[in-house]
Amino acid sequence: MATTITITGAGGQIGYALLFRIAAGDMLGQDEKVRLRLLEIPQGLKAAEGAALELQDCAFDLLESVEVTDDAATGFDSCNLALLVGARPRGPGMERADLLAANAGIFGPQGAAIAGSAASDVRVTVVGNPANTNALIAAASADGIPPERFTALTRLDENRARAQLAAALDAPVSAIRRVPIWGNHSATQFPDVTHATVDGRPVLEALAERVDDVEAWLEQTFIPRVAKRGAEIIEVRGSSSVASAANATIEHTRDWVHGTDDWTSAGVVSNGEYGVPAGLVSSFPVRSVDGRWQIVEGLELSAWARGRIDASVAELVAERDAVRALGVL
Ligand code: NAI
């Protein structure tokens, strides 16, 4: 068997960090052959073609074929997994409404093309920002495909949160579990440590032994550090997060296909869980069971957590309404 994987924006930075790991089996494992479709816009074709030549030179055992195209119907033909990375970045002086409109012009047609030509089991991971609302637009444009097949990447935020907790607690990152991200993949996101554990012990208890005022630390240090980590990377590296974003994309998709043994985070379509308006693509604590994301239900939320989640969800509602005003949804 082989899985057909379409990567949009494959000629870009994250694309370059993704392709070789997928072809090496990091995403689907060593038993699954892969066919790669690299979908670009005309300006990005050369970079994607160059990556395709290098993929050939790697002589990966698992890689059956690579095809480069700027035609969406060809790009998504029979694809089982679509990683939507290519997006329109915010240009100088660009207002949020302009950004949403420019991306609606990408993700609407791509959703329609996926509905028209992808395999019936297609699963879509949106990486390109604004990821949650782009996923919402793609899902709304994909007639006949269940909306839950469209997700937005918030795994990088979760990985950043776990890494920050590991550093603060002087623990290995593998010991830190259950740190879901709620809401939007943006500065309003809520990385939630309420139920987090370190080596099976509550993180809040462990933090109290190291930090004078845990609430203040969460509010003033931890949450801003996680939410603004992208900006920190740009400042230090001189370029945005690339390998870590590709890694999170691989982990998200791997877990969706192969399942999880604990909670993780993903932007998934709400059915009204935790008061998040139905239809929004919001990040939740999730499990992956039998190839489907399931929102972890029944968690107690403090008033503080509730307020944080509500603020991020309000931003998602505003994004949805701005897109509706454009006549897209
Ligand atoms: P990049 O600018 O290096 O590459 C983007 C590529 O997309 C370019 O090659 C461009 O030609 C292509 N592209 C643009 N429109 C397209 C279309 N309609 N169809 C196909 N390809 C198209 O950007 P980079 O660094 O690879 O980032 C990609 C996106 O990922 C950005 O929107 C970025 O904000 C987002 N991102 C999301 C993260 C997340 O956690 N959700 C984390 C990091 C980045």
Q: How many domains make up the coordinates?
A: 2
Listing every helix as H and every strand as E from the N terminus to the C terminus, the arrangement reads EHEHEHEHEHEHEEEEEHHHHEEEH
Instruction: Sum up the overall morphology in one term.
Output: globular
> What is the strand tally?
14
Strand content: 15-25%
Whole-angstrom Rg: 19 Å
Termini separation (Å)?
37 Å
CATH topology of the largest domain: L-2-Hydroxyisocaproate Dehydrogenase, Chain A, domain 2
Which kinds of small molecule does this entry bind, naming each only once?
1,4-dihydronicotinamide adenine dinucleotide
- The helix content is 40-55%
Strand order of the largest sheet: 3-2-1-4-5-6
Major pleated sheet: 6 strands, parallel
- CATH superfamily membership of the largest domain, which one? Lactate dehydrogenase/glycoside hydrolase, family 4, C-terminal
* Rounded average pLDDT: 97
Our count of helices gives: 11
CATH architecture of the largest domain: Alpha-Beta Complex
Unreliable sequence segments = none
Task: Look at the structure and give the CATH class of the largest domain.
Answer: Alpha Beta
Structural class: alpha/beta
Family: Belongs to the LDH/MDH superfamily. MDH type 2 family.
GO biological process, one term: malate metabolic process
Domain Lactate/malate dehydrogenase C-terminal: 154-322
EC number: 1.1.1.37
